[in-house]
Design brief:
The protein is mostly beta strands. The protein has three helices and 27 strands. The strands form six sheets. A seven-stranded antiparallel sheet has the order 2-23-20-25-18-15-14, with no helix packed on it. Strands 3-4-5-12-7-10-13 form a seven-stranded antiparallel sheet, with no helix packed on it. Strands 6-11-8-9 form a four-stranded antiparallel sheet, with no helix packed on it.
Amino acid sequence: MRVLLLLSSIIVAFLSIAFKDTKIELVTTSFYNTNTTTFKDLPLLLPRALYISTKRANMTIPRVIRKAFLAVEQSEGAGARVRRSIGTPQLRNFSPFLMLDHFTIKPGAGFPDHAHRGQETITYLLEGAVDHEDFAGNAGTIEAGDLQFMTAGKGIMHAEMPRQNPDGSANIGMQLWVDLPEKLKKCEPRYRDLRAKEIPNIDIDDGKVHIKIISGQSHGVDSVKELAYTPVWILDIEIKPGGKIVQNLPEGWNAFAYTLSGSTAFGVDKDKTTIGQYHNVVFEQKGDEVNAEVAEDAKENGHFILVAGLPLDQKVVQYGPFVLNSQEEVYQAMMDFQTHSNGFERAKGWQSEIGKSMVH
C-alpha cells in the first residue's frame, strides 16, 4: 500500500511539473436546455426541423444583450498576440463555447507542437495564411477567408504556424473552442477544411448588408457543408452605413457576436446599444432573432461574427488543452499524454516540421 501511495505521489508531482502553467477548472452548466437530443450517433449538424421552431406568423422575440465587454490583448503561444473573450473571467464556459481568440501572428511567432483532447477547434483566417501539421501525417494550409474545423476527440498533437507574408504583415484570424458532447469525447480525431470559395453568401437591405453563411442559415440560404459534431452556426456579417439586419437564430441556443471593426448597434428600441471594435456581445438565451444596424452617418462599415451553439448539459473540467467531464478524466488524459497511450501513441518522439523553425 505504501508503495502504491509513493508511486501515486510521484506521478502527481511529475504531472504537476509538466503542466505547471495551467489550472483545472470545474464549471457546471446552469441553464435550461430546451433542445432534445441524446447525442447517440449525433449528425454533424442537426436536421433543421430540430433547431428551427415552428412559430405563429409575426411572432418573434428579439434577443437582448446580457453583457458586452472589450477583449483585451494578451500574449499566447510562442510570440503570438490574442484578444481572448470567451475563456476569461468575463465569460467562462459559455456552453458549448470554451474559448474565443482573435489572434495576430507575426513572422517568427506561432503555436508550435501541442496536444488536445475532448474539444473541437474552429479556425477562421481573416488575413494571411497558416500552416498546420499533426502526428497522424495530416498537413495543409488555410488562407484568408478559409476555415479549418478540427475535432480533437480522444487525442491529437499538432502545430499551427504562420506563413511569412512577402510584405511582412501579420496573419490574423479567429479561433473558437467548442465542447464535445460527453459521448463523443473519445471519437477519432479529424479535420475538415472549408475554402472561402465554398462559403455561400447573400446581400440584403439593398446591398447594404453582406452575409457569409459559414455554418447554419440566413435569409433562406443554407451553409453547404456539415462541419462540426456540436451544432454551431457561424455568420460573418458586414453592414454599410444605414444598413440593418434581422437574423434568426435557433431558440434556446447560446449566442454572441464579436465585433471586428466599426461600430454596430445591437437590439431594438430602448434595448439598442452601440458596440465598438474588439468587443464580445453576449445575448440572452431567450429570443429567436438578433437585430443589428449601422448608423447612417457612420464613417466605416460595421463588421462582426455572429455565433450560436447548442448548449450541452454537462460538467466542464478543463486543464489546459484537455477538456473533459471530471477530474479523474483529466488526470487520465495527462497520464495518457505522458505515457503515449489511449490516443496519444503517435505523440512519442513526434516533432512537426513546421514547428522546428519559427519562421516558415
